[in-house]
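check these tokens.
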Amino acid sequence: MKENPKDGKNRNAGNHDSCERVLPPRGDYRTLLSFQKAEVVYDITFRFAHKYLSRGDRTVDQMIQSARSGKQNVLEGSKAAQTSKEMEIKLTNVGRASLEELLADYRDFLRVRDHVVWDKESKEARFVRRLGCKTPQTFEIYREFVETRPPEVIANIAICLLHQANYLLDQQLKTLEKEFVEQGGLRERMTRVRLANRNNQGRK
């Protein structure tokens, strides 16, 4: 998220030499492309599992739960960012792991039925990547394909979207970990603000 030039350090802040926020601005998780893709994956998986897997098959609940966990943990991680960078990283990692588990389930669906997993450079995979460039990402972009294509095509679309979501989460985690190393968490920010305030009081 881009920093607002009106936030952060203010050179005309009078006696306040440091305007670091103890609590950073809360990010809107709905603007995260990783969340948008995870939500689309959930919407596809919910329909796919109920339509193409046998009633009573434990995989139905497992796939839906993995998809929901991926989406919800990205959401909750973003909301936790305001008070705990550590919790944001932990929850985002949980979401990433859930989507990886779901990816394995889709691959299993194709493998045991002797269907092909699309090569990443196939025309089909490239077409889904082009769809994945549209913003915002919503289920409506993929609805027609989910409602009209055979299950092996839908599974491959889900796999393509999972790769995209996982890539984005990997990049997101790298950024979060870098920020944590450089800036610390809430405790470190509070300490810096207290010290800055003490220094300002000492100059008066």
Observations:
- Helices lie at 33-52, 58-80, 85-112, 123-131, 143-148, 151-183, 186-203.
- Residues 31-185 form one domain.
- The chain is about 65% helix and 0% strand.
